[in-house]
Amino acid sequence: MANLKVNGKPVSVEADESTPLLWVLREQLGLTGTKYGCGIAACGACTIHIDGAAVRACVYPLGALSGEEEITTIEGLSADGSHPVQQAWVELDVPQCGYCQPGMIMAVAGMLNSNPNPTDEDIDLEITNICRCGTFTRVRKGVHLAKTKKA
């Protein structure tokens, strides 16, 4: 049994400590906004926050958590879509198919937590999520718009 804090709420889950956090979130907690993409932390579709930092949940084992960390999924980023990154994504119509976008939004929000004024170079270095539709130009514009918005 593991006790976690997910999206501001305490939860208890029963899983082997080697279970990737992605599967705990999706299968046990029903938080399906966090997507499975590659399973090897390459694509970023599974990006969540642990204590505000972007983490790829597909390779993060449940046993690596103490229970004190704050885990945030796309469902917990904001209750009403008012997070600056979500606002920018809507305003600029960033996603195309949308499958990778929860992870992309979480990666961008995590980057802005630690670097509130990223340059294009920072964005290119830090946002390594893969978008098969190729919306990278709109993602970069979205990052620049999001950093001008208030949380």
From TrEMBL:
GO terms for molecular function: 2 iron, 2 sulfur cluster binding; metal ion binding; oxidoreductase activity. This is Putative isoquinoline 1-oxidoreductase subunit alpha. Gene3D superfamilies: 3.10.20.30, [2Fe-2S]-binding domain (1.10.150.120). SUPFAM superfamilies: 2Fe-2S ferredoxin-like, CO dehydrogenase ISP C-domain like. Signal peptide: none annotated. Keywords: 2Fe-2S, Iron, Iron-sulfur, Metal-binding, Oxidoreductase. It comes from Hyphomonas hirschiana VP5. It comes from the Bacteria. The keyword Transcription regulation does not apply. Pfam families: Fer2 (PF00111), Fer2_2 (PF01799). Transmembrane segments: none annotated. Residues 1-77 form the 2Fe-2S ferredoxin-type domain. InterPro entries: 2Fe-2S-bd, 2Fe-2S-bd_dom_sf, 2Fe-2S_ferredoxin-like_sf, 2Fe-2S_ferredoxin-type, 2Fe2S_fd_BS, Beta-grasp_dom_sf, Diverse_Oxidoreductases.
